[in-house]
Amino acid sequence: MTILDKIIEKKKEELAYYEAEYATDHIKPLPFNIQKSRQMNVIAEIKRASPSKGLINPDMDPVTQAKLYEDNGASAISVLTDESFFQGSFDDLKAVAEAVSIPVLCKDFMIDKKQIDRAANAGASIILLIVAALSDELLHELNQHAKKLNLSVLTEVHNEEELQRALAAKADIIGVNNRDLKTFEVDLKVSAELGKVITAQGLPFVSESGIFTAADAETAAKTGASAVLVGESLMKAQNTGELLRSLQVPLSSDSYAR
Ligand SMILES: O=P(O)(O)OC[C@@H](O)[C@@H](O)c1c[nH]c2ccccc12
């Protein structure tokens, strides 16, 4: 059983206790666009802990961290909401969404519409759908549900087969996870490989995981990515603002003009 299987199994258990919660008119998702910028968009992540790295920065205050990200040019903020494996929460998401005026991504393992409503109610503008964790049917259903609520969807893939499924589901923003959620192995070459196929379709993509330096952001830019999703390095940096600014490397015109 892989870690992804374990996380999904636990999610199913937890969902039994979720109270029905419907997203209504009060939600005001912000548009999320990574195609206009001439600089690498950085989606900066709030992540206390993870199954692959253990404790990353357990004492961090999510609101302080989120404001630091916003002040230093982040395009969006990702907040882990999974409690059991990442020590995150929907309270973190809500507090962050209230404190900043850029889009917030609810980073969780979505397998049910109820989770999307909860994310929307907590102030998320973007949700993540992980292709490896979903059937084609669920991928379609959750995607439709998010769109109905005007949320943006980041559809995450790790290999060619998942990418084809994402494209068939009409994903419009693809996240290429450089980390294999089954083995934790990280390799930026995954973005290089899948980036060719995605950019050929004229779609934007986010290179996710394993970005530590400006040189990594440049490598990601060369693969055609117009955004990077960065957690650990920003959470552990001595000077988070400086690192975040350094990751906003120039993009070549074909990355932003598509
Ligand atoms: O901490 P990193 O290596 O910078 O990675 C951030 C982000 O990509 C990672 O947290 C992530 C990408 N996809 C996910 C899916 C679930 C949980 C976590 C993730």
Automatic annotation (TrEMBL):
EC number(s) per entry: 4.1.1.48
Domain Indole-3-glycerol phosphate synthase: 15-247
Catalytic activity: 1-(2-carboxyphenylamino)-1-deoxy-D-ribulose 5-phosphate + H(+) = (1S,2R)-1-C-(indol-3-yl)glycerol 3-phosphate + CO2 + H2O
Pathway of action: Amino-acid biosynthesis; L-tryptophan biosynthesis; L-tryptophan from chorismate: step 4/5
Keywords: Amino-acid biosynthesis, Aromatic amino acid biosynthesis, Decarboxylase, Lyase, Tryptophan biosynthesis
Keyword flag Lyase: yes
CDD domains with a match to the protein in the record: IGPS
An MF annotation (GO) of this entry: indole-3-glycerol-phosphate synthase activity
Keyword Transferase part of the UniProt annotation: no
Annotated family: Belongs to the TrpC family.
Protein name (database record): Indole-3-glycerol phosphate synthase
Source organism: Jeotgalibacillus haloalkalitolerans
Gene that produces this protein: trpC
